[in-house]
Specification:
heterodimer; A: 156 residues; B: 434 residues; mainly alpha; globular
Chain lengths: 156, 434
């Protein structure tokens, strides 16, 4: 879990952009929850549909930040092998790991697409605030696709 | 191949793929998907892989995870560790081993709020190790006590690990927090005891430091209030029925920000960094959680947990042998796998087994968390040990491991006590009528 980004060019900008956008959603989750607790406790008027808003905030926070994790190459790996393999072997394995990651993310995105499409066609909405269900799916799908791209540009 | 054979092959394949440095989350998705396909065909396997991320992305109960991480990140950035160490020092000051005991107390309190053993160890390796060495402490003992005590926080509530466990094991988080309180405090006490015994046996490792006078003790102890407020909001608030766990986490994170700004220990720069730390590590954890859910769907489909329980019944293994085997399993996994992954991967299999011999899910959550603290400091891959070594390159890894030995012994004492007296964990949730 090294934070080795070996950054050149646009990578740090994109990383930061994903991070800041995700942070904005996290801040919204904190702000809304605190506001809800205050309003509920002191004014007996909770915010309607908190559950749905928090869930939306969670989906956005996590999946917008996900590409940044891949750009930072920060994923947890078991590094037992580092202690006895040569650095050249470790570098090769990392490249292999990146290819596997790319494949897995691509399969995930490919399988999420039809589910997202069905969701749009049916036009489902949430029960309290009538938020279209697809708003929950867009960040997830986009995050996985962007993560696949992030792995792709970081393969060296 | 029978389904069970596929399941077991999947477990071995996972270990092999992890060994060649494939990211943990990716490896879990890959093995889970292929294994599921081997049993039930590619059509259903692929559909499941597409559906799980959506299901988890909007799981309300998971929202507690980034919020607790945020509270910890803010507390770290606001430098609450230094004041806490001074306060703990003021409390313990005056006997041989006091400085190490203070480190343990401060790590326990800070780790509880911070939630990350690695961040706690990193922080206190800057704050406490130089202080101990300045007073002539043995470098290995100084580093070992920080490595071990840095892990206390993952057990003492509020705990991110327990939040994740509560999700996979479908247990109440409030009950888990209550159950973790006594074992967590007991473990901290055992660590202090281990320190005092070591100080008696090897006085040359820990020179006596002159006691502080009462006035400076009182002054330093005031530094405790910030973390006390956060603990009150994040934990006590849940039991008073003020907040749900998610609300408690959000309110405590907000309070940490307010306290940081009000005491001028946090600026906008630090706040932004705390938020960025939080979203990156939450996303990383989340991807592992997605992978673990896909993997466990496969394991459950292969009926591994069911067959395991049936097999254990058939060969009439005694409960004691089962418990011993489970302790051994977690000890071995903990030596190379990081703690959240360990819990996510094993709980779907081991929990039914433990349930079949009468241990319940709340108890088991506390048990695996204690086992995780052991994994964090045991060789060859003790994560906190490496973190400390990275910051103190002049202390050899071997000496740090040696320094953690008394605490490792204390860990196993707690494991023994938990197994012998499950009430240690279960009494408080019962007394709170939860």
């Amino acid at each position: 879990m090294s934070g080795d980004t070996g950054d050149r060019g646009l990578t740090p900008i994109f990383t930061k952009a994903f991070g800041v956008l995700a942070a904005a959603f996290l801040a919204a989750m904190v702000g809304l929850t605190v506001a809800d607790v205050v309003l509920r406790s002191f004014f007996a008027s909770p915010i309607r549909g908190m559950l749905e808003l928090i869930e939306l905030g969670l989906a956005c926070t996590i999946f917008i930040a996900l590409p940044a994790v891949f750009l930072r190459r920060e994923h947890l790996v078991v590094d037992v092998i580092d202690h006895f393999a040569r650095p050249r072997v470790v570098r090769f394995l990392d490249r292999l790991g990146a290819l596997v990651s790319l494949g897995v993310l691509a399969v995930m995105a490919w399988q999420m697409w039809p589910l997202a499409q069905t969701m749009v066609e049916f036009g489902d909405v949430t029960s309290d605030l009538s938020i279209p269900r697809m708003y929950y799916w867009i960040p997830v799908l986009a995050g996985v696709v962007a993560s696949a791209l992030a792995v792709l540009i970081k393969i060296r | 191949m029978s389904n069970l054979a596929i399941g077991l092959a999947g477990v071995l394949a996972l270990l092999g793929i992890l060994f060649i440095r494939v990211p943990i989350g990716v490896a879990l998705v890959l093995v889970g998907m292929c294994g599921y396909a081997a049993i039930d065909g590619w059509r259903t396997a692929l559909t499941m892989v597409g559906a799980v991320p959506f299901e988890l992305a909007s799981a309300y109960s998971l929202s507690v995870v980034p919020l607790f991480i945020l509270m910890g990140a803010v507390a770290s950035r606001a430098g609450m560790s230094r004041e806490l160490f001074d306060a703990a020092n003021a409390i313990f000051s005056g006997f041989r081993g006091a400085l190490a005991s203070a480190t343990i107390g401060a790590c326990a309190a800070f780790g509880a709020i911070c939630g990350s053993s690695i961040a706690t160890a990193a922080t206190f390796s800057r704050v406490a190790i130089p202080e101990m060495r300045r007073h002539g402490y043995d470098a290995g003992v100084a580093a070992g006590s920080v490595a071990a005590a840095g892990c206390l926080g993952i057990l003492i509530p509020p705990s991110v690990i327990l939040a994740i466990y509560s999700l996979v094991a479908e247990q109440s988080l409030a009950r888990l927090f209550a159950a973790a309180l006594f074992p967590g405090l007991l473990l901290a006490t055992l660590y202090v005891l281990a320190t005092v015994l070591l100080a008696r046996a090897r006085p040359q490792y820990m020179p006596k430091v002159p006691a502080m006078d009462l006035a400076s003790r009182l002054r330093a102890a005031r530094g405790l209030w910030k973390l006390a407020v956060l603990f009150f909001l994040a934990v006590v608030g849940i039991y008073l029925g003020w907040f749900s766990p998610t609300e408690a986490a959000a309110v405590a994170a907000f309070a940490a920000i307010v306290i940081g700004f009000a005491t001028r220990s946090l600026g906008l720069r630090g706040l932004l960094d705390a938020f960025l730390d939080t979203v990156y590590s939450s996303a990383m954890l989340f991807f592992i959680i997605v992978g673990a859910f896909i993997f466990s769907r496969f394991i459950v489909l292969a009926r591994v947990p069911y067959e395991l329980v049936a097999w254990v019944n058939e060969v009439e293994l005694s409960p004691a042998a089962i418990v011993l085997a489970v302790v051994l399993l977690y000890f071995l996994l903990g030596t190379f796998l990081e703690e959240v992954s360990t819990i996510l991967i094993t709980v779907p299999v081991v929990l039914p087994l433990m349930a079949s011999i009468g241990y319940d899910g709340i108890w088991f959550g506390i048990f695996v968390t204690v086992m995780a603290t052991i994994g964090l400091i045991s060789p060859p891959v003790g994560l906190t040990v490496f973190v400390i070594q990275a910051q103190n390159p002049d202390i050899p890894v071997g000496r740090i491991y040696k320094g953690t030995l008394p605490f490792l012994a204390a860990d196993f004492v707690l494991v023994g006590l938990l197994i012998a007296f499950p009430a240690l964990a279960l009494w408080l949730p019962a007394a709170l009528r939860m």
